Amino acid sequence: MRKLMKNVSHLVLPISVMVLLIIINLVKGADYFTITMINGALYGNIPNILFGASELVILSIGMTLVTAASRGQDISIGESATISSAVFVWFVLRSGEATPVTIIVGFLLSCVVGLGLGAFNGILVSIFKVQPMVASLILFTGGRSIAFMIDGKLSPILANDISNRIGTVIPGIPIQTPVILTVVFIALFAVLLKTTTLRLYVETVGINPNAARLNGINPKKVIFLTFLIMGFCSAVAGFIAVNKAGRHDSVNLLKNIMMDAILAVAIGGNSLGGGTFSITGSIIGAYTIEMLNRTLLRLEIEPAMIKVFKAIFIVILMVVASPVVRDFIKKVLDRNRTRKEE
Asked: What is the pTM of this model?
């Protein structure tokens, strides 16, 4: 019971923020939950949020593990996704004709590249003890230039039906394909956590790597593994993003998404200093961020001013969620409880 209450407490912040945003949208217009069928697919505010947050949800899952184990963040996830998706596009176009086989092989090849990029960051962090943000700064700085060279200094277009269906909808299925892929990814990851000791190892290393070592857990291997998973998540997110766009833009593809991924982890009730984590919280945090972005647009705030309002919102959110404020609220509640008992 105590463990259940602890898990629920981690979700109070993201759920509260999401409820607040829903109320704001309902005040703006009662049609917020309206869903329509267009060309056999469901569209509306909620489906659009699920569609728009697909890549962020997947990246937030990987970021949660990296943060929990290494006590730091990978800021190169957008660049890793750009490089791996560039390899996918290069392979598909080089194959001549886009078929299910070439798409699958291209995706697997991009995953291998993503794993390689994750391994690069993982080696720097786990073996050479480089701080995660500094280690990933290398790919963050040069990653898009590498993708630009893979693209042949162009912006190649994926002009085929299969990519279009992966990025939009499959005929006969009303739910957008990226949403389905995200649900499948979440389900597979949930099975992974349920059937392995990954959660235990990651949390143990994040809380106290020395104690983990004394208990037979190799912190280097665990941290390295989390960066491998992060690389895989980047490849999957890049695959979805490039099929959504229908072309590969090495400059703007998933640009600055690492900030939203880190924020999703924080909103989800996870400590950015490592340790215990909540994947569910990070997923809700990712959808909350997408809802925030669309809410600001719905309030007709100028695009140039959206980042300012978003920054203000984030500052308020982080202050409310800070340990200082939490301890203060807890003391006030305990004091009131004591007075009532007297």
From this structure: 0.93
